[in-house]
Amino acid sequence: MRKSDRKYLRVGKAAEELGLHPITIRRWIKTGKIQAVRVAEVAVTSGDRLTRFGTEYLETLFSSFGVTFTILDPGEEKTAEQELVEDLFSIIASFAGKLYGMRSHKQKALLECAQNVLGSP
Question: What is the DSSP letter of 82?
Fold first, then answer.
């Protein structure tokens, strides 16, 4: 089988496709019956590309699995206050987007209702 023809699956998905339990798949990997590929490094161009805040938690998670986490363009050093303000702006922008999204759905429903009422004799 050529490398380009290989199909990579997570343990759970492989178990589902083979009709087995994930523990069986893990046991087969351990005994060498099937081959597994482990992720060694996660690289992102900017810390904000992966998450707006809480990057430290992801670094801890990755390191607990032996995965290197690299931010290619870390940017300038910021004070704690600057980071807090940026995080708050991100949260506000996220909630504002959700609020305006909800309003647009209500507006569409209201417009459809009005068209139905006006269109029916």
Answer: H
